[in-house]
Amino acid sequence: MSTTPVTSATGTTPAAADSSMPNGAFKADANTFMTLLVANMKYQDPMQPQDSTAFMQQISQMTMVQQLTTLADTATAGAKDQVQSTAVGLLGRTVTYKDSIGDSHTGLVQKVDVSSNTPTMTVDGIPGVDPASVTEVA
Fold first, then answer.
1. How far apart are CA 67 and CA 42, in angstroms?
2. What is the average pLDDT score of the chain?
């Protein structure tokens, strides 16, 4: 049985490659699934309709993928929050950190900037210190 690629109303494939994802991977969402499901039902052979068990398995699989995606997003947000909390917890503490060259410096954490995706600290007037570079906390 040959298949024909399914296109959306805009003429593009519904699971188009996302340029932010590596190696042309794509992110399937609920809309992609519904588009594919409708196309599958529209083009199925009326003399050999899809087995209802297989249909339910597909729906279950898509639900599971959607839940895993939500879980991954939640875990990522939680990890970001944890890094920010850890950095804020260093305020007023003396830390030893390694700079980009690998030299160790010790100083007081005066400020934490959480405005970007990755928080940075100001240590003894030196801004942009990565909390991940901290090797010791006093």
1. 27
2. 79
